[in-house]
Design goal:
Length: 616
Amino acid sequence: MQAIGRRTEGLPLYLVHLSDELMVWLEQHPQRTDQEIEVFFEALPENLKLFIGQQFSRLPAETQVILDAAAVAGSGFSPVMLAAVTGCDVLAAEDWCERLAGSRHILVCPSSSYYPERRGSRRYTFIHAYYQKLAYERVPPLRRTGLHLAVAEWFEAACGARVRNLAVEIATHFESGRNHERALHYYRIAVENALGKHDPHAVSALSRRALAILEHQLPATPEYARVAVELYTILASAIQMTHGFAEPTLQSVFERLLHHEQALDESPHRLPILWSMMGFYFVCGQLRIAEQYAERMLAAIGGMVPLDSLISGHVGKMGVGLYAGHLDFALAHFQASQSLYRPELRGMFPLAAIHPIILSLYFSAKTHCLLGLPDQALNYIEQGIAVAETDAQPFSLAFIQWGEIVCRQLRGEAELTEAACQAFISHADEQGFALLSAAAIIQRGWALTILGRIEEGIDTIERGLILYWATGAHLSETFLLAYCAEAFLISGLPEKCSSLLEKAFQIMESNGELYFEAELHRLKGEMLRTSNPAEAERHFQQAIGIAQFQGTRFQELRAANSLAKLWLGQSRPESARTLLEKAYSALTEGFDTRDSLEARALLAAMADGSLPDTSN
């Protein structure tokens, strides 16, 4: 009954006809599927089609002319519009609208409803969308095209500056009226409006409609190539926000973008193109290609490098350094980007899916966590949130908020991670940020497992991994898989833990994402702790060596904790104490993190002789 109510919108005549046909259809289709039921509700009952058609046919010829114009006008129209489009007298058009609205057989006039072209001009609509649909289908194709064009031109003439607010409607009429140049003009305005509202879904849909006209209806000229480059750049950013930076369809978008760019001597969108393509290859896990785009942003153009390009290039190089495990290199490029940036420059990146400075602050936060400076990491996250809130760009804000979840997870704060993920996932789903939502689902699964909600945690992780891989993303995969492996190990699922670790090592070897290599070896050692202590020790030692080489004190302390517990179980307390004291004494902050608390507890137990249980 709810489906019937939604489809009929409570219209009594429609309700009766649809209910009668539904009973007959259900008897004829006892094994119906949900999809077949949806198809049924999309169709208009045949007897109702006949009844409405008879209503239209009984109208006088001059009234049917106005009916055609009303059907083409769409969801709403005024007597002034109908008179202008058909050439009839405005009073006659108003009389026609009033009579049909008064009987409520075909039209309605919502109370206090006025059309934008002038005060006092009432706005009418068809009584139901199907009335408009059937009336529209009765209009011959050539006449329909002419009416669409007339409606679009009327909007332009009558609505003045307010045409920008009606850009989608006007563009649609021009497109149906086959004036493709004007349709493109208004679709571009509609895209600008959607950008101003930070609505990437609308930006994507409208850009695609504009590009369809450019690609199929307009000549291949340098001017249109310039417009195509702009629209493809905007589309790429919108897709990266809504589907993730590694969305497979981006490949074809970039191919068309570069095709049109070749027709230009100089592209004003060079930076956003390079930035979008760098982001694509980054998240696909192809760090070497991403670095090439970062280097192109740093390259001189006509003897100089624009400031926005310099900043973006340094941020790109920083990301490459971080994920390759070269933390000092990453920090050097972070400092270079920060030295160039000023708050008044925040509007320099209008087409970027994520603001480069916000991305740099996220990279910096993650780098500082790895360096064993987790308190400073949270400070960088706070700076990023402040910039994002000022910038009022929803995706940038969501990204840096997700960055806080990453830092909380690295700190081992399971309760805070779980609570933050739960709130974040809801917001990301509402905004349509698929990649960020998928990553947060995985992270929530880890937190649930650490908190003892094993079954729920494992189910959440497995669901998140499916969603994450569906986006085509591979960047930071070793990080996510490491935490998934830890959760599986804690849950008593060593086979699944081993499978994920093997996958993570393969990814590390193939794309050079080395920044979590030490943690992967530590987890391998934890998995072998009982079955093969000697091999476990080898992996723990390897983890410590890699962490020291990379300067990631966070991973060094984690591996030292694991090895110290192994040695304590082998009655080697002095070796354990020496190892742990060295790793713990190197810390200058972050004394409330999970790993710091565990190290301090182990040292205290060794000091008073009450050795802890080191079996897990």
